[in-house]
Design a protein that fits this description.
21% helix, eight-stranded mixed sheet
């Protein structure tokens, strides 16, 4: 491994899906009977400024503290607390170093720690508490926990010291509802520039019975919106919101599902399959940027591409015209992407349909 190789930071994010309680306000919103929580990051953010993202953040050592055993006991035993997912990527490429964020030895598995992280960060950014009362029966579709009266003070404490999230759970007599989060995908930040920030991010789906209250922190997040996948796409095309490639790809994947019940069932049906871990490789053409994903004919599983971008003295149309085996995102401009997929998905998952954006380029 190259000595200069930057280390990835472990992170987790949640696609929080809730059923709509009222008729759809627009034709775009009517395409699905559920909405996804999207948070707009501040323009001053050091990572993805101004973008609409799903709630989430970086794993902390407290997320795998053995003190969590006392919170989960005696209802669920370690190491997996009843989880049936693999908890590890299904592909071995790339083998990359990680910053030390977990304790060297803990009875809390990484799969559980990632989920605790996702739930903690969702609380910090949106005020939504995905907790499970100790001893309560598991619901077919879970609910968000009723917020404590001193919500603001607890959010401040947790933001300043992530260890306080465990204390909040103890005070409420609850456990992080790790069983409500279903593995969905796993993205590695592609190389952009030397010294750039890079993350290994687990994406989870959480389907809720009803829409929880949200309370913005106004530090990292300045706006929250509940949008159907089709509505989010329309806002992106109309340049009302900014989506970075992983969020765009995942929203396009969700457009396959019209009903929340179908999405929930799909997640449960593939619960033991695990998910692929993808490192996009960037190819710069004369007129756009192509992000190559595993399975694409131009994708190379080579450690040299961990910190390298490709370039070619051809247009995107020339590149696309000669290819047949596609799994790629084409970034035409800030608010105009397209997706081209001709390969079959693995592990009972689903890929987005081919999508050419709001303007035809090819």
């Amino acid at each position: 491994m190259q000595g200069s190789l930057r280390q990835w930071r472990r992170a987790a994010t949640v696609l929080l899906a809730v059923g709509r309680a009222h008729p759809s306000p627009s034709p775009a919103a009517a395409a699905q009977d559920y909405e996804i929580l999207m948070l707009q990051r501040t323009q001053s953010s050091s990572f993805l400024p101004g973008a609409h993202v799903f709630p989430g953040g970086v794993l902390d050592t407290s997320d795998c503290s053995t003190d969590w055993l006392h919170v989960f006991k005696p209802y669920y035993g370690p190491p997996g607390f009843g989880l049936t997912s693999f908890g590890i990527p299904r592909e071995s490429y790339p083998e990359v170093p990680f910053e030390t964020q977990t304790q060297p030895y803990s009875l809390i598995s990484e799969d559980v720690a990632y989920r605790i992280c996702a739930i903690r960060e969702t609380f910090e950014e949106s005020g939504v508490l995905l907790l499970h009362p100790a001893g309560a029966e598991t619901l077919r579709l879970p609910r968000a926990f009723v917020l404590p009266d001193d919500l603001a003070s607890w959010r401040t404490r947790v933001r300043e010291d992530p260890r306080q999230f465990l204390q909040l759970c103890r005070r409420l007599g609850c456990m992080p509802n790790i069983w409500a989060l279903q593995e969905w995908s796993n993205w590695l930040t592609p190389f952009v520039r030397k010294g750039g920030r890079r993350f290994d991010t687990k994406f989870y789906i959480c389907c809720l019975q009803e829409k929880p209250q949200t309370f913005l922190d106004m530090l990292e997040v300045i706006k929250c919106e509940w949008l159907t996948p089709t509505e989010a796409m329309k806002k992106f095309e109309d340049e009302e919101i900014l989506l970075v490639p992983p969020q765009f790809y995942e929203i396009r994947r969700l457009t396959h599902f019209t009903f929340l019940s179908d999405l929930h069932k799909f997640c449960l049906d593939r619960i033991s399959e695990g998910c692929e871990r993808w490192l996009p490789i960037t190819l710069q053409t004369l007129d756009s940027i192509i992000q190559l994903l595993p399975g694409d004919e131009l994708y190379r599983e080579d450690k040299d591409f961990l910190e390298k971008n490709l370039s070619i003295n051809k247009t995107t149309e020339e590149i696309m015209g000669k290819g047949k085996k596609f799994h790629r995102l084409v970034l035409h401009s800030r608010n105009n992407y397209s997706i081209h997929v001709t390969i079959q998905p693995k592990y009972k998952h689903i890929y987005p349909k081919n999508y050419s954006g709001f303007k035809s380029h090819l």
